[in-house]
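Postdoc handover notes: sequence design on the structure in folder B. Input tokens:
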């Protein structure tokens, strides 16, 4: 057996929590990476939603403007003057 293997076994027998701590640390780092990726995705989606809302507002304003113009240029049949 190699000395490294013997030392690892001795550590495992004497201090089993050392290996558990290493595993926990690795799991925490992986969880932090996943959380960072999810946060980045959320922020990107949030920006996209805000941009879509702005485009929708502009479209609604343009539609209201065209409707107002359309109402003013052609009178309704009920509004024609009687001759």
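Designed sequence:
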């Amino acid at each position: 057996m190699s000395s490294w293997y013997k030392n690892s076994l001795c550590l495992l027998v004497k201090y089993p929590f050392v290996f558990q701590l290493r595993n926990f640390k690795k799991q925490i780092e992986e969880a932090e990476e996943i959380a960072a990726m999810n946060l980045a995705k959320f922020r990107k989606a949030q920006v996209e939603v805000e941009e879509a809302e702005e485009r929708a507002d502009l479209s609604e304003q343009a539609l209201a403007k065209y409707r107002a113009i359309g109402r003013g240029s052609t009178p309704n049949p009920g509004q024609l003057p009687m001759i």
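Context for whoever picks this up: Helices lie at 3-14, 16-73. Don't rerun without checking with the PI first.
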